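Practice problem: DUF4250 domain-containing protein
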Amino acid sequence: MDLKNFASMDPIMLMSIVNMKLRDDFSSLEDLASYFEIDMIALCTKLAEAGFEYQKEQRQFR
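Answer key — structure tokens:
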């Protein structure tokens, strides 16, 4: 799944996809953002607006 259109995605679906990608394919949020060429701050902001915060130690949004 391409995350370049994350701004228009449902935040719950987005959180689920990002967590799956972090679990299966990427060692950090920075790596994920770089790979998909997306703004990590904008991604975190979108998910924060829906109540999800990034947990760096667990490498997932909760």
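Discussion: The mean pLDDT is 97. Students who identified this feature from the tokens alone can consider the problem solved.
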